[in-house]
Specification:
mainly alpha, 4 strands
Length: 315
Amino acid sequence: MENEFNSLYPPKPFLEKEEQRKGHIAVTIFSIVLFAMTFLLFFGQQIVFLIELMAVLIIHEMGHFLMMKRFGYKNVRMLFVPLMGAFVHGSKDEYRQKESILVILAGPLPGIALAVVFWFIGHKLDVLWMVEVALWSFLINAINLLPILPMDGGRLLNVLFFQRIELFQVVFAFVSSIAMIAFGFFFEHYLFMVFGFLMGFQVRSHHRRYLVHKSLRDSDVEYTTTYEKLTDRAYHFIKKEVLEHTPGLRKFMENAEEMDTSLIVAGEVNNMLEPPLEKDAGLGYRVFIVFIWIAAILGSVFFVLQSNGAGFNGL
């Protein structure tokens, strides 16, 4: 019956699989240079702070990078985004829950563990730069563990619990962006204000994704799959919802009469798909991971408050 329904729809456009790329190191170095130049352009000659910030980001992303390599991800590359941070991207044909959890936690947990070491050594030997690096590492990794997509905390929430909790993430992202802006304004740390505004811009994207997925669930359209396995029927349902909730794309297609936009739309449909995930983590394992997750956030906040209580003015 499914094949009969599928035959009623035109074939979906063909998307080539991403092949193994070369030159990742050059692209990473270029993104680091661009990140540094943009930072100095906006925040003046704060070179020491820039070095500390980039050290924290590199340690964090290197954890993701090495763990992805360990589990056989393809096209693993690290990129820095000006005024945003950094990320590591890679892909696999099949994902497993436990592997995905380890890949996610391999960024923030080593950063927090190393920050603890730096914090104790820095305070004991009165080495200011070590304490500063530790505090920035606590802050950045704790923020990264908040349950907001596309941060590690949001990705971890999705991997641990398979219910679609996108509406919660939209609301939490909005509240978090407001809180970040308020924190930066109150303590006069304008980098946090910038980050809060940038987080706010993501709220609309999260909300659009939530609306598309909700419509697909209501229509009983499967979107937890790969593009290759996506049926023609499902493709056209998802395409319809994407265009309905993306006025900019719809207007672009209307004005591009002589241009083939099928691959552009297919790419947007592909971005709406949730990759299939093998559920190999039991309840006890997931409870343990949640404990580690919460402990990492609370522990980071504790060390930051301890330093502030001790009169440290690095932040």
